[in-house]
Every structure is written in C-alpha cells, then in structure tokens.
Amino acid sequence: MTDRQQRHQRAMQKLKAHVDDKVAAADQQRGLLLVFTGNGKGKTTAAWGTVTRALGYGYRVGVVQFIKGLWECGERERLAADANLEVSIMATGFTWETQNRESDTAACQAVWQDAARLLADPEVYLVVLDEITYMLKFGYLDIDTVRQAIADRPPEQSVIVTGRNAHRELIEMADTVSEMQDVKHAFDAGIQARRGIDY
Ligand code: ATP
Ligand code: MG
C-alpha cells in the first residue's frame, strides 16, 4: 500500500468511528418538526419530496397549502390519486391579488381547521404546513395557536413548516431547520417560472 493509500485508509477509519459514535448516540425515536426556510428556491420542493418519501412507505400524509393553494402544482397532480394523501388548499389564492384582509383571514382560519385536525390525528404520519410562515407574519394566524397544536401532536407524527422568515418560536422548537440560501435565481435574469420545474 502506498503512503497515500495508508493515509486515506486511516482517515476513513477515523471518519467511520466518528459516524458510528454518532449513530450509537442517536437512540431516540419520535416524530420530528422540520422547518424549511430562507430566501432560496427549494422549500416547497423539499416538502413534497418528503411527502413522496412517506407515501412510499404507505404512511398517511396531510398537506395544507396556505397562500398558494390555487396555484398549479405538479406534485399535487401526480400524488392526488394516492388514497393516503389528503391535501387542503386555502380558498382565496394569494393575498397580493385579493388584498382583502378580512376574507384572507377567514380563508386562512378555515384551512387551519384542516391543519388542526391533521395535527391531532395519530394515524397521520406527516403533516406539511406549506407557506404557513406568511400567515403568522400577516397576523392571519396566531403563533400560540400554531405552537400549541404542533406541541400537542401525536408523538409519532412529523411536521414540516415551509416559508420565508420562519417565526423564531418555530425555529426554536424545531428538530431540523434548513435555510435555503439564494445564490442566484433564474427569475432575476428575466426567466419565467417553469412548469414542472418551479411548480
Ligand atoms: P419551490 O416551490 O420551487 O421549492 P420555494 O418554496 O423555496 O420554491 P417560494 O418562496 O415558496 O419558494 O416561491 C415559490 C415560487 O417562487 C417558485 O416558483 C420558485 O421557483 C420561486 N422562487 C423561489 N425562490 C425564489 C427566489 N429567490 N427568487 C425568485 N423566485 C423564487
Ligand atoms: Mg414554497
């Protein structure tokens, strides 16, 4: 064995020991709270990827789409036939168009009822609260209500929260937080959102 091969082997052994220690230390099993936030692209995509992952094992999944419910969404089209998936969408579409605080609040509260029901159902393995961060920001939903519902959920249930500017309290209570960083985005170069890629 050359010097270089020996060095590589030693480094790999060290790495393996480190990973083994970490695997041994991770001895808890329970549902997770994940937050996908930040200004870069990929938050909702990652949420639907995880939905697909859970459905792949036959788990029940609930997706609640705040704000962008009326927008097209390829994953929803593809997965809708799966009897284990329930999707609830906010009725009014997005607020920059409707700009009616009262009806937006009512629509938000209505779809939140579905979220609350899913968060209380031990048969549901994963709940996605897509773009809910904006509901909290606009004051259509109250952080205490959301925090309580997430905290009281069944222990085996996981929850994914997506959206920019996630509330500090959600970040604090989360198990996994990923911030998508905007390095560049095609839209800034004048390229339109692309079907099957962006939605
Ligand atoms: P995606 O749904 O593609 O995973 P996202 O959930 O991270 O994106 P949102 O803020 O929900 O991001 O925006 C959704 C739409 O806006 C998508 O069409 C996405 O491609 C686009 N988008 C996301 N990030 C940016 C950005 N930094 N600049 C411009 N457009 C963006
Ligand atoms: Mg999104």
Automatic annotation (TrEMBL):
Pathway: Cofactor biosynthesis; adenosylcobalamin biosynthesis; adenosylcobalamin from cob(II)yrinate a,c-diamide: step 2/7
Organism superkingdom: Bacteria
Annotated protein name in UniProt: Corrinoid adenosyltransferase
GO molecular function list: corrinoid adenosyltransferase activity
Protein task: Required for both de novo synthesis of the corrin ring for the assimilation of exogenous corrinoids. Participates in the adenosylation of a variety of incomplete and complete corrinoids.
Primary residence: cytoplasm
Reactions catalysed: 2 cob(II)yrinate a,c diamide + reduced [electron-transfer flavoprotein] + 2 ATP = 2 adenosylcob(III)yrinate a,c-diamide + 2 triphosphate + oxidized [electron-transfer flavoprotein] + 3 H(+); 2 cob(II)alamin + reduced [electron-transfer flavoprotein] + 2 ATP = 2 adenosylcob(III)alamin + 2 triphosphate + oxidized [electron-transfer flavoprotein] + 3 H(+)
Keywords for the protein's UniProt record, in alphabetical order: ATP-binding, Cobalamin biosynthesis, Cytoplasm, Nucleotide-binding, Porphyrin biosynthesis, Transferase
CDD domains: CobA_ACA
Gene3D superfamilies per UniProt: P-loop containing nucleotide triphosphate hydrolases (3.40.50.300)
The EC number(s) this enzyme carries: 2.5.1.17
Cellular location(s): Cytoplasm
Family listed: Belongs to the Cob(I)alamin adenosyltransferase family.
Gene (name only): cobO
